[in-house]
Design brief:
alpha+beta; Nucleoside Triphosphate Pyrophosphohydrolase; 3 domains; 8-stranded mixed sheet; 6-stranded mixed sheet; 7 helices; 17 strands
Length: 347
């Protein structure tokens, strides 16, 4: 019997467990009432329904089985601090994903789904592992950003794959060349094909660099990291509300290398120069369809001058005195935590 994840925009149908929210794979009926085909024999891709490829555990590309020896890998570093439930050895097998609307239209039996108001009344809007008050047949749609703080790497990446593919389907209904309605390619290929001019449109991945820049504190010699407050993080509404800071990041332009993008983005946003630029790791990021490419670099010179239409503040912070930073599960957090870990500091 086939199973599928159920998604609604950027949320995933989940059941609460002792370890927090966990994505539900709903069993699918043997026959689709509209087509008369089983879910195994239906086309791999339909609008609202996609096949997800196997998502491998990081151990498949780390240089040895003991990934903790590879300090240059974010997944290796995270495996040192992760519990046994959130392991970098977990592989997500190939499966299906579908939208909630598709599931309803195709008579998929769903568990009882609680809406946000009911979750809030029970105090279940955060991923609190100690609060497990839902019945076995009760589920809820939980935001991806909340889930990735505790899911295995492979499962998190597979859900990112689902969000991006379903959004791509919804956004690619017409040919970008002649405006005719498009159809899915045959033979399970991830492409939308124009039956008029035969243009094939594939899911678009947007490469983005994100860079952790370090230097010794000029007065104390303690390691510092450059963090910036971006306008998109919002403004401080009360004295008690902490502003969130993050790393310098930006899209790769046509015709430039990743390293060139690092140098350009840092110069544009904070006006400093770098040295010792090196790639660390990557993360698929479905907001909307980015591939985050993580780098580290050392400060080489220059005074910080912020790009005011992007940032409101940027500075070097001691690792022992950091402002609010991005949440665990994001590559920004992992880069910062890796540097802190090297200095014997636990975030």
């Amino acid at each position: 019997m086939s199973h599928a994840f159920i998604l609604r925009d950027e949320t995933i149908l989940c059941r609460q467990t002792l370890h927090g929210w966990w994505p539900v794979q709903v069993p699918l009926p043997q026959l689709n009432n509209d087509t008369g085909l089983s879910h195994e024999t239906q086309p791999a891709y339909q609008v609202g329904r996609v096949t997800l490829l196997e998502s491998l555990a990081p151990t498949h590309w780390l240089p040895n089985d003991d990934s903790r020896q590879n300090k240059n890998s974010l997944t290796a570093f995270e495996s040192e601090t992760a519990n046994t439930f959130t392991t970098n050895a977990f592989t997500s097998k190939a499966t299906l994903a579908m939208t909630y609307d598709y599931a309803i239209a195709n008579h998929v039996t769903l568990p009882k789904i609680l809406e946000n108001a009911e979750l809030e009344s029970r105090g279940l809007t955060s991923n609190n592992k100690e609060k497990n008050t839902l019945g076995n047949d009760e589920c809820a749609f939980i935001a991806y950003r909340l889930l990735i703080t505790q899911l295995p790497f492979a499962l998190s990446d597979q859900l990112s794959q689902a969000i991006q593919l379903l959004r791509w389907q919804a956004d690619t209904q017409f040919c970008s060349r002649c405006a005719a309605p498009v159809v899915h390619a045959n033979h399970g290929e991830r492409a939308m094909v124009c039956p008029v001019c035969r243009l094939r449109q594939y899911p678009r991945v947007q490469p983005c660099i994100i860079t952790a820049i370090t230097r010794p504190n000029p007065q104390t010699g303690a390691m510092q990291i450059l963090l910036a407050h971006h306008h998109r993080y919002g403004q401080q509404k009360t004295p008690q509300q902490a502003l969130q800071y993050g790393l310098i990041a930006g899209f790769v332009e046509v015709g430039e290398s990743l390293e060139h993008a690092v140098v350009r983005e840092v110069a544009e946003e904070v006006n400093i120069s770098l040295k010792d630029i090196r790639y660390v790791s990557s993360q698929p990021w479905p907001f909307p369809s980015n591939l985050m490419l993580g780098f580290r670099a050392a400060y080489a010179g220059g005074d910080i001058v912020i790009q005011e239409d992007e940032l409101s503040h940027a500075d070097f912070f001691d690792l022992t005195n950091l402002p609010k930073i991005p949440f665990k599960g994001s590559i920004a957090y992992a880069l910062i935590a890796q540097i802190a870990h090297e200095q014997g500091i636990s975030l």
